[in-house]
Design a protein that fits this description.
The strands form two sheets. A two-stranded antiparallel ribbon has the order 1-2. The protein has a two-stranded antiparallel sheet with strand order 3-4. It has eleven helices and four strands. The protein has helices at about 5-15, 20-35, 55-70, 90, 95-120, 125-135, 145-165, 205-215, 230-235, 240-245, 265-270; strands spanning about 180-185, 200-205, 220, 225-230.
Length: about 280
């Protein structure tokens, strides 16, 4: 349980485009500040996002909800200590909503710990995919918010799993900047349910190569050597394009430490490649 982990969880669930995740993050900061004024639970300045005792976290959540209710009624509340320009957060219910998300993050954090245990068993990729899909409850269909959230969390863990498998480096270039690395599904999430969480169905690629791989402009042969499509080669008159792709054509990717990419799935990808 960490503050950064909670923030990552929120952005996984809500994305970056709407302001929900940022609003919940601000609400948690307000709650933390509130406990600096009145340390009701003897936190000694510790953020509530770092609490590992679920029983204590639940007590804090109940307390925050009750204090928010008093504040909204205009009665004395611990929220009276916050800056007036922040009144809308408890006033519109963001504080209680944020701490409820923190309780959900606690559950997800426990699930993620179990997921790493499953991954480290080193079973077959397909059996791991089945276990992880069950654990993260992503095998359900639908468009409701709960199903969507579970899918996003599953995808978030898939990214962590694939990057970990490849040592947090692009398997083509060795680039190690996390913000530009992608966990590329060899066979898309939408087209193969059984391999959605399969560590053998993922490659760690930097953004440009991920886009090219997704569009079947590059692929890899049975010996994990990069294949470049004729369509990309048509742009070799541009020195930048040529430098990006020609130097790696025919070269083997850096192979991962735990789970090799499935040759069967790579063949499927290769068969859809643009000639």
């Amino acid at each position: 349980m960490t503050q950064q982990g909670f923030e990552d969880y929120l952005f996984s669930v809500y994305g970056y485009k709407n302001g929900t995740a940022k609003s919940y993050i601000t609400a948690i900061h307000i709650i933390d500040e509130m406990f600096l004024y009145e340390d009701v639970f003897d936190l000694k300045g510790k953020s509530i996002t770092c609490i590992t005792n679920f029983s204590l976290l639940k007590q804090i959540a109940d307390f925050v909800c009750s204090q928010q209710s008093l504040f909204k009624k205009g009665e004395h509340s611990i929220f009276n200590n916050i800056n007036s320009n922040q009144n809308s957060y408890p006033g519109k219910g963001f504080c209680s909503a944020a701490i409820k998300q923190l309780l959900k993050y606690y559950t997800y954090n426990s699930e993620e710990e179990k997921a790493w245990t499953i991954l480290n068993k080193k079973g077959s990729g397909k059996s791991i995919s089945k276990e992880l899909s069950t654990l993260f409850k992503i095998d359900k269909e639908g468009l409701d918010t709960t199903v969507t959230a579970r899918v996003r969390l599953g995808q978030s863990y898939f990214r962590k799993m694939v990057l970990h498998n490849f040592g947090n480096k692009c398997c083509i270039t060795g680039l190690n900047i996390p913000q530009v690395l992608r966990a590329s599904h060899i066979v898309p999430w939408s087209s193969d349910k059984t391999n959605r969480m399969n560590p053998e169905n993922g490659l760690c690629l930097s953004a440009t190569y991920d886009a090219a791989f997704d569009k079947h402009l590059i692929s890899f042969d049975e010996d994990y050597r990069m294949i470049v499509s004729k369509e990309i080669k048509e742009y070799y008159t541009n020195e930048i394009t040529k430098a990006y792709f020609e130097r790696y054509e025919g070269k083997q990717i850096a192979l991962p430490s735990l789970y090799l990419p499935s040759k069967r799935l790579l063949e499927k990808h290769r068969n859809l490649m643009i000639e």
